[in-house]
Amino acid sequence: MKKLLLHSCCGPCSTHVINCLKDDYDLTIFYFNPAIFPQEEYQKRLLEQKRYAKIVNVKVIDGTWDEEEYLRLVKGHELDKEGGERCAICFEQRLKKTAQVAKQMGFDLFATTLTVSPHKNSLVINSIGERIAKEEGIPFLNENFKKKDGYLDSIRLSKQYGLYRQNYCGCRFSIRKDNV
Length: 180
Prior knowledge:
The chain is α/β, with parallel strands linked by helices and 180 residues long. The chain contains six helices and four strands, in the order βαβαβααβαα. Helix content is 46%, strand content 11%. A four-stranded parallel β-sheet has the order 3-2-1-4, with helices on both faces. The longest helix has 20 residues, at 85-104. The chain is globular.
């Protein structure tokens, strides 16, 4: 069975994706989200990821929280609309690190839960993943997990397990006044 390192943005989004992959791969979650703001929110999401992973018996690797690095990368894109270039930079940061960790730790391939969200462009995410796979020399699992009602399934599973569902993507720029 191939070893897959799955980048996860949060526990709720990971639910459906884990269920899709756990029978076909030796699956490990890589929770890496340096853009999450504030740090308390990062920790809250990490705890929920670990809680769900324990329920489904999947290992979790905790990446580092480094908002300063994220802010350096997106400098000049602070006012971009949600889903724009700032988000693509964020996707790239997370997928690149996932690929590097996967290669370093001897995984066969890497993937991401990001494509389960209807608010994220799967074509953009998967094209970034494919490019990074070539650069890093490790295969990327190109999937659109929102297909077959993947997002709705993640909502259902989150309710079933009482998972905390955040009301913004994660970075300081994605917080809208009506969300706080």
